[in-house]
Amino acid sequence: MFHIFHGPDEFSAQEAIVPFKTGLGDGAAIDLNYTGLDGKTTTLTDIMRHAGAVPFLAAYRLVVVRNYLLQLSGAGGKSHVKALSNFLTRLPETTRLIFWETATLKKSHPILKLGQTIPQCVRLFDTTGPHMLSKWVQKRVKQKGGQIDYRAVMALVNVVGDDLRALDNEIEKLTLYVNGARAVSLADVERLCPYTADSETFAMANAIGRQDVKTALDQLHKRLEEGQHPLMIMGGITGQFRGLLEIKSMAAAGLTPAEIAKAKGWKSDYAVKMRLKDARNFSLERLLEIFTILLNTDKAIKTGQIEETLAVDLLVMRLCRPH
């Protein structure tokens, strides 16, 4: 039987291959019955030779070919596809042949279409986008026997990003910390993963960028109810907008998201991409105007012209005002 694992989520695809390996038996059995091939350098003849071999003291032979189907294009591609299709229809029952593609195949790909006619042959691994990532985090925590609050999920996703291995390491640490006694909370994330501490302030800045007054005020009041001082919250808002200005300026200077993330000391460029997306809501002139509003609010609080909580309420409403 053959399988097609495709999509950018390499972490989950690699995990899905593990049971096929362990099903071969001990280390010696794996060495004798497992072959990994690089699709960029291997040939169809190589694939047929390895996949056609008889397993030795094991129930099946496992062959994993990485990024081969993606190469089947251009001159000669049709003949290779036809030859591969013919081979797959007569693949030995004692062979497990996995095509592991680290990008999503086009729906029109002939081998993909062939695989879709066979139950459980094709699996798509893709966690692109914050909603997909948040679902992955929740599922992963559940697999480890835990629970997690939604705010904690978003804190991890917003800052760690789509590096699933890094996310998994953080989830492992958090679930061991609470040890099943309760759900993982935002406070746990901030305590054990310090680089996520500003995620809620980022969410507030994000809501301000969308001119979503209700969400921005909800975020503000949650932090006030948790006992955070208005000046501390305002400092966080200032830091977020300073960061947006910095990232926007770095991107304008020609730096890529990966280069910006490296300069900022972040683990993933996902946070950069998210901030660049939100930075589109602000022109440089608007960002400078926001800093003036923040400075005037800070001065009004410190000189006693306005009560602190009222000041940050009015600040958020002014920042959300259409411009």
List the helices and strands and how they pair.
Elements: E1 2-6, H1 10-22, H2 27-33, E2 34-38, H3 44-51, E3 61-66, H4 77-89, E4 95-101, H5 110-115, E5 122-124, H6 130-143, H7 150-160, H8 164-178, H9 186-192, H10 199-209, H11 213-225, H12 230-252, H13 257-264, H14 270-279, H15 284-302, H16 308-319
Parallel strand pairs: 1-4, 1-5, 2-3, 3-4
Helix pairs in contact: 6-7, 7-9, 10-11, 10-12, 11-16, 12-14, 12-15, 12-16, 13-14, 15-16
What do you see in this structure?
The chain has 323 residues and is of the alpha/beta class. It folds into three domains: 2-124, P-loop containing nucleotide triphosphate hydrolases (Rossmann fold); 130-196, Helicase, Ruva Protein, domain 3, CATH 1.10.8; 199-319, Zinc Finger, Delta Prime, domain 3. The protein is built from 16 helices and five strands. Strands 2-3-4-1-5 form a five-stranded parallel beta sheet, sandwiched between helices. Strand 3, helix 4 (77-89) and strand 4 form a beta-alpha-beta unit. Helix 7 runs parallel beside helix 9.
Features:
323 residues, alpha/beta, Rossmann fold, Helicase, Ruva Protein, domain 3, Zinc Finger, Delta Prime, domain 3, five-stranded parallel beta sheet, 16 helices, elongated
Task: Specify the overall morphology.
Answer: elongated
SS-based class: alpha/beta
CATH architecture of the largest domain: 3-Layer(aba) Sandwich
Describe the biggest sheet?
A: 5 strands, parallel
Order of helices and strands: EHHEHEHEHEHHHHHHHHHHH
The name of the CATH topology of the largest domain is: Rossmann fold
